[in-house]
Amino acid sequence: MSADIELGRQKLAWAREHMPVHAALRQRWASTWPLAGITVGVCSHIEAKTGVFVETLAAAGAEVVFTGSEPGSSQDDVVAALNEQDGIVGYARRGISDAELDELHNRALTHRPRFILDDAAELTARMVHQHPELLEGFIGMCEQTTTGIQRIQAMAREGAIRFPAYAVNNTPMKHEFDNIHGTGESSLTNLLQTTNLLLAGKRVVIAGYGDCGLGLATKARSLGARVMVTEIEPRQALRAHMAGFEVGPMAEAAAWGEIFITATGNREVIRGEHFDVMRDGALMANAGHFNVEIDAEALAGRAEEVTEARPGIAEYRTADGRRLHLVAEGRLVNLATPTAMGHPAEVMDTTFAMQAVAACHLVAHAEGLSPGVHAVPDEVDRDVAETRLTTLGIGIDELTESQRRFLESWRIEDIKG
Amino acid sequence: MSADIELGRQKLAWAREHMPVHAALRQRWASTWPLAGITVGVCSHIEAKTGVFVETLAAAGAEVVFTGSEPGSSQDDVVAALNEQDGIVGYARRGISDAELDELHNRALTHRPRFILDDAAELTARMVHQHPELLEGFIGMCEQTTTGIQRIQAMAREGAIRFPAYAVNNTPMKHEFDNIHGTGESSLTNLLQTTNLLLAGKRVVIAGYGDCGLGLATKARSLGARVMVTEIEPRQALRAHMAGFEVGPMAEAAAWGEIFITATGNREVIRGEHFDVMRDGALMANAGHFNVEIDAEALAGRAEEVTEARPGIAEYRTADGRRLHLVAEGRLVNLATPTAMGHPAEVMDTTFAMQAVAACHLVAHAEGLSPGVHAVPDEVDRDVAETRLTTLGIGIDELTESQRRFLESWRIEDIKG
Amino acid sequence: MSADIELGRQKLAWAREHMPVHAALRQRWASTWPLAGITVGVCSHIEAKTGVFVETLAAAGAEVVFTGSEPGSSQDDVVAALNEQDGIVGYARRGISDAELDELHNRALTHRPRFILDDAAELTARMVHQHPELLEGFIGMCEQTTTGIQRIQAMAREGAIRFPAYAVNNTPMKHEFDNIHGTGESSLTNLLQTTNLLLAGKRVVIAGYGDCGLGLATKARSLGARVMVTEIEPRQALRAHMAGFEVGPMAEAAAWGEIFITATGNREVIRGEHFDVMRDGALMANAGHFNVEIDAEALAGRAEEVTEARPGIAEYRTADGRRLHLVAEGRLVNLATPTAMGHPAEVMDTTFAMQAVAACHLVAHAEGLSPGVHAVPDEVDRDVAETRLTTLGIGIDELTESQRRFLESWRIEDIKG
Amino acid sequence: MSADIELGRQKLAWAREHMPVHAALRQRWASTWPLAGITVGVCSHIEAKTGVFVETLAAAGAEVVFTGSEPGSSQDDVVAALNEQDGIVGYARRGISDAELDELHNRALTHRPRFILDDAAELTARMVHQHPELLEGFIGMCEQTTTGIQRIQAMAREGAIRFPAYAVNNTPMKHEFDNIHGTGESSLTNLLQTTNLLLAGKRVVIAGYGDCGLGLATKARSLGARVMVTEIEPRQALRAHMAGFEVGPMAEAAAWGEIFITATGNREVIRGEHFDVMRDGALMANAGHFNVEIDAEALAGRAEEVTEARPGIAEYRTADGRRLHLVAEGRLVNLATPTAMGHPAEVMDTTFAMQAVAACHLVAHAEGLSPGVHAVPDEVDRDVAETRLTTLGIGIDELTESQRRFLESWRIEDIKG
């Protein structure tokens, strides 16, 4: 095990070096300790970047208890290297069953976190649903995924929550960078690495044209793929059309594509009727949070034989002799493939910084906030953006007094004079 | 003059052929006449696409009075071909002075419009400021530019307005297509046409990274330019950075660039201190609404001689022997250059459809709306998007019942079961 | 007419300012006069950039006689402004018939040029075919188009020529810049300007994937178009496929496309069988040298009515009610549309510099060259490239002595030692 | 070991499925056996795609003896799964020393190959230099890299070879696909996988703008990087400039870049003087054949400490406290990093098909070929292209008789008539 810890420490050191916003935050909070005395639960993929985030929360004074958000996405060496640090304790393991993940979540909740930094609302939903006694004294939570915000809003509609939540995913600093660039780039990298295939010249179907889908579609095309987008929302569909993508229903796309990547946040986006018309050799992967976007059960139902075509790729052979390939059991392709390492460090630097600064802000302002989902105040987003620009050494312009007045004016002589 | 009318009719016919959403709306309104009996003022660049919009409002039952929004952007032949139609009267002329434009606006207002479809709030501001008597019985207005919404909000802050306004520019269907693609593509086309220069290999500075700036920067780079973006907003600056653009203050960009395009909605974005460090041969153009983004007065103040380098390009020769070029006097480069024709037809089809459908919606719901700026209801935007998809023959997916339930659920067993 | 000359002078001044390689050559040849005493025929589109080229040949000591290469592509004001200069005489006019162009060519040949700088071998073919007496004492020629080189090679195969020719088009400095960037960018600019349509979201067919087609396809896609490429050469087809383009035969493309641009150097690339399956509203333009790529005669044969849809766009209405549009009668879209100005200045700076330097080289080495087509010596190409880099202020690396030795070695110990 | 073989078989099966051109060749040669009775040496990175190539040569009747071309790029499981097949024997192992590689090469040569399919002329150079007795009866060789062709040409200049060689790398079907798309895509994928970093927003320096460099630069930029290119050849430099890249000498680039990738085919492209001005955190990788492009010795000489920052990344800490990172010891980044798998299967399908078909052609025509490097006949290249198009299901146009005549004609009336 000590060798593991060493590798975990090495991974943390590399991540720290490439997460300068976190370094700036640790320096900022070294004396102020904004989370002092609060037990904070972190639920996420526990690998090196999450580790630096956990360390930074501890540096802000929190007692951190962490747990994994997915059975296949945490790294044991990083978990070990975190657990040896003061103020941090956690429960996560790679390659476990759903039941074992349940167990780890429950153990994390025994620490009675008063604040949660969540991924897909996993830990929060479990607390609300199965451990409502913990709601007493619970301050609030921050959520970093589209999926999680949908879930919290569903809870709020049912009156199931009595605490405020910040929709961190909805901030420009989160979804424009993490979703477009982080998911986009790392999903393709991992897909190519796992398959040893080429995007140039390939027919690729992207299901969903939210920020993740936009990133995937844009980057796949820029590497030479021909891309078809499927959507359920007419404006998103037009957005994809105007960006030059083929747009059509999945029934058409299924028969056309060679590679499929789902990023919708919904279930059964590729399902029985679609498998039936796919070409021999079609390959499917998922970039959305849950492993429900590709209907693996229906796929198995059509297969006469399921074999491992390569590590991380299952091959389903249909009765009519076609081979359909599913990557990483339909789990997140940038986290669950054999050599996956999740989002790039620079992206998580910003995403987790948004979570950390939003958490400090919510803790400081919790009393004034009604239960339910709130937008993260603009000043939090701006603060992280300015910190990031500073670490990048990028200067921008400032409004002159004359320009400020101009933006406030509307009378003809003020504008044209 | 009759020859002019013939050319105007030809231009209108070409635009009609390429504005299928307007054709669908005329058909929809042929029996319902949602604007029956209402005098509607239209202020915009009066060329062929605006003409089709005006025709469509008339087909919805309105009495339309139109006027130009800029001294250099209307086309006399189209004006003539509109004025011969029933239910339409207008006042616009190309190449007039600011004073003459004032006069035309005032004449339009003598028709006492009860609704205004405005560009940069030009006609509305004049009515509110100079003809407040017209506010009696005034129903409301729709505004299609960022600049105009800022002005209406400024009026509202001062309590100067008592009617509701729809911020049409802020809808996805407007700003994502009109600003990114319409402004982006047509500004570059007109700039290249006017200069006979090449973008490939050129150093281009884009001031502002809103939707217009994003479109300009992305398309210029895609044609082979190296692009630097200037911004005042840290998140926009980071967005440009992550998209791969050089980002820096104008003081740096001024010394670096060969071509400059402003798209900020603010004034004096390029000014004296910047002219002083520009290279010999630098060329400046504006894609923002008003001709104030480049400080032409300060430029003239530095010039020993001003000549016409080409039709539509003024050359300012500085005391130290540099030649600085200003396109179209700093007016909208896609409207005010000698051969300019404004946005492409397909873009204006959507933009003006948003204006028209939003106008009908506001007229039908005016009583329930408080004075001030309102977001256009989502159903209006969705309606236009669906109409556009239909005209394009693009099909999209629909949520299955199972998917709809999934989006509403949050409990662990509902999501993973 | 004097007003025309003034505009011609202005155009020449603007072009001179943006053709720094020509400025460097004029300086280089100011004392050496490499073309002294030689009458040089120039056949090209006579507009401002060609004018600067003509001036530069005169500055090299030549007596220049110029003529237009196309009935619709020369500009009278530039012709006038050239004809007033010493050592230059020319015959070109805009909007003439083929017969009038013949007449102008014949008048140019009365000056008995001993060297020709040609476009599509127009003047050379006429001399060889109709005025063989001029071959006596004829030194040679330089050709700048793919089409022209094919023609000269065909002449050589038939033994019809007794002089050497340099295939300037085949040099990297010519075809990579002029064809990819010059034709690509300016053809799209002129098409958009003429049609007032949008590329974003459009289905565009590019016929031919040589350098011109590659430039057109790449740039159209980068502006948001979906592009299908047609080819007759399997490797070019694969090249397009790997670059991410749809590839297929014209029979398929014809039914799919909304806009068609030909760039093949061949005739009847779009013909009767293709018109028959096109959509209503389809629009065709040509970027190849001759107006034969789109079979206009077959198109007319299918039309019940032909009208002008816009200046520069003919509308053919078929018996089954479809409207098919042909831009500029199928002539070069970047030269023959109403507001066309040909290639951008920076591109022609390099292309014409290649012609000029190659001409000087051929004149100096004509005795050692056999009749027929020759590759331009690499040193000529390199010379122009270095001059261009100097004018751009771009520095590059030089081989170290150790690197030079490495490139010469092959033994294992030399390479890995 | 048997488990290894199973994984090797799985890898070969996956590669076979994605190499349809090889399947077509095996079918074509099933009865003709064009290499019957010939011992063929294959020197390359021995992983799954090379395995399918080796199998295909055996299917053509050859006795194949293979060996690895690099100490770190072969895979033991694939080697084992090949060695169990009839007609194939080989010597390759991962992670060996240079001396051990020498030994394996020598063992391969004991089989007395009469034909070599080489990578960087490794096996050929050894034979020529150290085992000249094998030249007796040696038929010839095919070479697939730029570097190898340079070496063979150097041998030929010294009169060291008496056999013909086909420069397979120089065919369009090889270098345009393998170098641009194969090296480009897989080098970036492996770099991102190894570093867990993001390209979007990064400053990337590409040394060399041959096909490999062009692919790397284009794809890196398309993922959001800002790219500077260094070159020694003025035309390549201009090509990069016109494509929109920053171009400058390495002395400038070194101080500017965050990530450096070399692809020049030369040595010491990044060397002492460049390390001295690099930023803290700079990261270097190599995509050229030999590990000499980055001067690792000079880098070590500047380091106070060298540690492993991550698997596959060495960190050199300089005396002034900067951390410089070298990926995979400067060996091929797409082959020598911990999880590397080389070029994508579809690319190697074409590359190795060129090698195989060229080998058969050379064997059949060896007698007519002089010693030295020869271009691969165009028919070979066209054959592979047509086979590839067939497997892709892509149809292209054919010349009509009228078009064929047009391309042969040059007289005015033939062309315009």
Walkthrough of the structure:
Chains A, B, C, D: Belongs to the adenosylhomocysteinase family. Chains A, B, C, D: NAD(+) binds at residues 145-147, 210-215, 231, 287-289, 334, 343. Chains A, B, C, D: Pfam families: AdoHcyase, AdoHcyase_NAD. Chains A, B, C, D: GO terms for molecular function: adenosylhomocysteinase activity. The structure is a homotetramer of 417-residue chains. Chain A is an alpha/beta fold and 417 residues long. The first copy, chain A, folds into 2 domains: 2-174 and 345-392, Adenosylhomocysteinase-like (Rossmann fold, 3-Layer(aba) Sandwich); 177-336, NAD(P)-binding Rossmann-like Domain (Rossmann fold), CATH 3.40.50. In chain A, 47% of the residues lie in helices and 17% in strands. Chain A has 18 helices and 15 strands. In chain A, the strands form 2 sheets. An 8-stranded mixed beta sheet of chain A has the order 9-8-7-10-11-14-13-12, with helices on both faces. At the B-D interface, loops of B face loops of D.
Key structural traits:
alpha/beta; eight-stranded mixed β-sheet; NAD (chains A, B, C, D); one-carbon metabolism (chains A, B, C, D); seven-stranded parallel β-sheet; Adenosylhomocysteinase-like (chains A, B, C, D); 2 domains; Rossmann fold; homotetramer; 417 residues; Adenosylhomocysteinase (chains A, B, C, D); 17% strand; S-Ado-L-homoCys_hydrolase_CS (chains A, B, C, D)
